[in-house]
Amino acid sequence: MSSPANSKVRAKVWMTPDQVEALRSACYTTGAEYLQQRNEAIIAFMYDTGLRVGELVQINKTLLRNGNSELYLPTDIQKDYPNENSPPPVTLTLSKDTVRLLSAYLNSRWKDPQALFPSRSSNRISEQGVRNMLHKVAEEAEVRPYKIDGTRGDASDVTPHALRHSVAYRMMNEEDDNTLYDVRNRLRHRSIQTTERIYDHMLKV
């Protein structure tokens, strides 16, 4: 049985692959037309990599390597571990779908700053800008994410961190041969115990 302390860190909200696909489709019926492809690229990129929103907004184009098929994450972008150690640099391999979408987006985006994802008014989207976009798209898609207490949430529960939790759900329930170690490596947890505490209840939801 989980301890009260462990229960506090467990993932409380997540989405299925079909729900994430609905978010991506809703990007094209929400907001300014020139932002729609960017919005889908943000969702697909986060759902592939498991990036935290604070990491996402720091990504520059130069961190994409090998024809946009790899993402290099230096130490200074990653969230620090809760101790004296810093996370090592890491390279994440991107899915073919993400590579295709990123390449199309970069070839046609309305402005070309250093940041991978600019906003309407700035050369780099903010964390709150990502949250606001996800809420609007979730409202349009009428996505009701799953919650740890067995109920279903609403658009306000669709957050960047819920999308990160959805990566773990997909890897453990929708893809073959993944282990908790694979989830740990994708989400870059400090230890496998962290992954177990957060996600052990997600299996076969």
Tags for this model:
205 residues; mainly alpha; hpI Integrase, Chain A; three-stranded antiparallel β-sheet; two-stranded antiparallel ribbon; 9 helices; 5 strands; 46% helix; globular; disordered N terminus
The CATH superfamily appears as Intergrase catalytic core
Describe the biggest sheet? 3 strands, antiparallel
CATH-derived topology: hpI Integrase, Chain A
What number of domains? 1
The CATH first-level class comes to: Mainly Alpha
Task: Please report the number of helical segments.
Answer: 9
- First-to-last CA distance: 18 Å
From the alpha-carbon coordinates, what is the Rg to the nearest angstrom?
17 Å
CATH architecture: Orthogonal Bundle
- The percent range for strand residues is 5-15%
Overall pLDDT level: 92
What's the total number of strands?
5
- Topology as H/E string? HEHHHEEEHHEHHH
- Low-confidence stretches are 1-6
Question: How does the overall form come out from the CA principal axes?
Answer: globular
Structural class: mainly alpha
Describe this structure in words.
The protein has 205 residues and is mainly alpha-helical. It has one domain: hpI Integrase, Chain A (Orthogonal Bundle). The protein is built from nine helices and five strands; from the N terminus they run αβαααβββααβααα. It has helices spanning 4-9, 17-26, 33-49, 53-56, 96-108, 127-141, 160-173, 180-187, 192-199, and strands spanning 13-14, 64-65, 70-73, 90-93, 146-147. The strands form two sheets. Strands 2-3-4 form a three-stranded antiparallel sheet, with no helix packed on it. Strands 1-5 form a two-stranded antiparallel ribbon. The protein is globular. The chain starts with a helix and ends in a 6-residue tail after the last helix. Mean pLDDT is 92; it is low at 1-6.
